Amino acid sequence: MVGIKFQIRNEHDVVLDKIFKNIDLKNYFFKITNEEVFDEKGNNFFEQQIYTSLGFRNLIKLRKHYPVFLTLQLYKDNKNMVEIQNYDNYLNSDCELFLYIIDNIFVEIYSKNENYLKVIKHNALKNKYVNVQDINDFSKFSLYY
User: Fold this and answer.
1) What is d(CA 134, CA 32) in angstroms, rounded to the nearest whole number?
2) Cα 122 from Cα 133, distance rounded (Å)
3) pLDDT tens digits for the chain (145 residues)?
4) Which residue in 122, 131, 104, 142 sits closest to 5, CA to CA?
5) 56/31 Cα distance (integer angstroms)
6) b vs e for 45-72, b when ≥16 Cβ sit within 10 Å of the residue's Cβ?
């Protein structure tokens, strides 16, 4: 399994916290790009493009959010962050995990750590997200549904 995809509910929630529940995110940096994520008041949820693991975890856990579009990349350090446009970019990068959300509900996640994908799949099923599917063919990797 190289990835997983599923559909979330179209609502304000702690969506990213639910997706990443029980994954050790210590010592990572999160790069946020192509985002349109709002808090409950309609303000931009993310105030910066790079977050430490603690800053990211506190933000997604404590505040409900509504992701319309989001591209999120997970790195062990903040030195070699690149623009990911296709699977080859991803494989040849230091990016450990790549998540994107499109049109409020469609989530697709790729990770170089298969255990992360297993935990995310468990979280998706536990939260009753629909159309949960493993991705085994990396040629399907695309930034568009």
Assistant:
1) 24
2) 11
3) 899 999 999 999 999 999 999 998 889 999 998 899 999 999 999 999 999 999 999 999 999 999 999 999 999 988 889 888 888 888 899 999 999 999 999 999 999 999 999 999 999 999 999 999 999 876 656 554 3
4) 131
5) 10
6) bbeeeebeeeebbebbeeeebbbeebbb
Structure tokens of 73?
Answer: 């990349």
Q: 3-state DSSP helix/strand/coil percent for the chain, to nearest 5?
A: 25, 35, 40
**Paired tokens of 19:** 């997706």
In the structure encoding, which two tokens stand for residue 77, read together? 């350090």
User: Coil, strand or helix: which one is 44?
Assistant: strand
Q: Does residue 37 contact residue 70 with C-beta atoms inside 8 Å?
A: yes
